[in-house]
Amino acid sequence: MLVSEFDYHLPAELIAQRPLADRAAARLLHLDRGKGVVEDLTFRDFPNLLRPDDLLVFNNTKVLPARLFGHRSGSRAQAVSAQNPAAQDFLRGRVEVLLTKQLSAAPPVWEALVHPGRKLGLGERIYFGAEASEGSHELKAEIIWRGTFGERHLRFDPVDDFFSVVQRIGHMPLPPYIDRPDTPADREEYQTVYAKPLGSVAAPTAGLHFTQEILDRIQQRGIETAEITLHVGLGTFQPVREQVVEQHELHSEWYQISEEAAQRIQSAREAGRRVVAVGTTTVRTLEFAARITPPNQKKVGACPEPAERWGIHTRADDSITAQSGEADIFIYPGFEFRVVSAMLTNFHLPKSTLLMLVAAFAGRELVLRAYEHAVQERYRFYSYGDCMFVE
Questions:
Q1: Sheet holding 387-390, edge to edge
Q2: pLDDT averaged per 10 residues, the chain (length 391)
Q3: pTM higher than 0.70, yes or no?
Q4: CA–CA dist 261, 263 (Å, integer)
């Protein structure tokens, strides 16, 4: 299967640069995959699309202000001419770091994307906060591992409260297609209203449309809900660089399903009720959890034979149990969905793994036709854009 089969044309002006003042005023494209038809609604119609016995599952992760700006020490830089008056500025050039995954807490070690990556080698030190210098900084990190596409492992010097410092000096990690700097307002607007555990570097954007009013209406209808956690990292938004879909592999992301959530999800499945996932991260978490036996949460790859691909034993009964670990499941057409019956999702980038997931659920041709309709009707796309409900 070729990655090019998941391409579509999107005018740049349809990429939402800012959220709507009223989250629930977003447009909603209702896609009935059985009938193959679409309907133009608004998100305030969403509670009425749910059935009384549905279980609605949210990803309650909270976004970390994970974009840090600092300066390199220059200790590992190539020497420049002493006659060059800009030499010192070059050696201590500005560095942008996007924290993507915590690897260790003591000392803090993080996987990160670094720019400019080519100039930053092993042993280079980076200073953040205050004057971002050796004598005045709030965080200090050393590069201890270097990957191929800008990935680095950074080991930070211990501080009393690492996350508190990052919360203070960090910037919200808005996606690159939002062509503006982040603002203080993004700290609230780029979070779901039900966000709890801190750890994501991108928002689970389907959840951005919910307001307390919408949640209250869902509760008033007696619709059961559950919350799981997947901390969004490179596995969700990394680009597909291969030409063949099956050759792509996802980075793993940490997830957790509590005992209460597992019981609600499994009870709904056993009763034949729909499990409705809010967002592709929720879909991936649920489908991964149904395929892996704790405590073997390592790698379960893409369909159609995840166990054989990674040599891991999966449960025959595919029940959802309380668990946590690392999920890297890659869902594309041909995948057998075992848990999710319907999903709410935003519109995704061309040739992305998220678009492939939606295509696996509803069919590639039908999804691309729905996207073509959304373009013609001037829907707003991507993180701060409109959404689609697929059932």
A1: 37-42, 27-32, 387-390, 342-346, 275-278, 55-59, 224-230, 253-257, 323-327
A2: 97 98 98 97 98 98 97 66 48 86 93 86 94 94 88 95 96 95 97 97 97 98 98 84 92 94 98 98 96 52 37 61 93 96 98 97 98 98 98 98
A3: yes
A4: 5
Residue linked to tokens 């609600």: 264
How far apart are alpha carbons 189 and 29 in whole angstroms? 22
Letter for the amino acid at 216? D
Q: Residue 93: what residue type? A: G
Distance CA 279, CA 390 (A): 11
The DSSP 8-state label assigned to residue 157 in this structure reads P
The one-letter code for the residue type at 304 is P
Q: CB 310: neighbour CB atoms within 10 A?
A: 15
Give the CA diameter of the chain. Answer: 77
Q: What is the DSSP letter of 320?
A: -
DSSP assigned state of 79: P
pLDDT at 109: 97
Counts for the chain of helices (H) and strands (E), in that order = 11, 17
Query: CA 104 to CA 144: how far, in whole Å?
Result: 13
**Helix ranges (DSSP H) in the chain:** 46-49, 87-91, 162-169, 186-189, 212-220, 234-237, 259-270, 280-289, 306-310, 353-362, 364-376
Angle at 144 between CA 140 and CA 146, to 5 degrees: 120
**Alpha carbon distance, N-terminus to C-terminus of the chain:** 24
pLDDT at 148: 76
Element (H, E) at 252: none
φ/ψ of residue 324, rounded to 5: -155, 160
